[in-house]
Specification:
Elements lengths: L2 E8 L1 H5 L4 H14 L3 E7 L6 E6 L3 H13 L3 E8 L2 H9 L2
Antiparallel strand pairs: 1-3, 1-4, 2-3
């Protein structure tokens, strides 16, 4: 399953409703699970980003659909990074 690190920044709407952030994360987890994805972890952070989430998806299209759905709610802007585990990196290095 592809793994993604999702960096989020709250929009004005998301910041205004900051107290709902944990509930929104639970809703995001439910939406991911409905799509066959897994939310591995979510951490709220100080600094440039408001949270960092690690997500596994069955394929890239499903991951994109889930993140577009999240963004359409208007609470966060996302920056998504594809992450590779050790086994995936070894396979990539074999192709060099």
């Amino acid at each position: 399953m592809p793994t993604y690190i999702v960096l989020t920044k709250w929009t004005d709407q998301g910041a205004k409703n900051a107290k709902d952030a944990v509930q929104r994360m639970h809703q995001f987890r439910s939406d991911l699970e409905r799509r066959g994805c897994k939310l591995r972890s979510c951490h709220w952070t100080q600094g440039q980003y408001d949270s960092i989430t690690i997500v596994e998806t069955p394929d890239e299209q499903t991951g994109m659909a889930a993140l577009l759905a999240l963004g359409s709610l208007g609470n966060v802007h996302t920056e998504t990074l594809r992450a590779y585990n050790e086994t995936e990196m070894e396979a990539i290095f074999q192709k060099m």
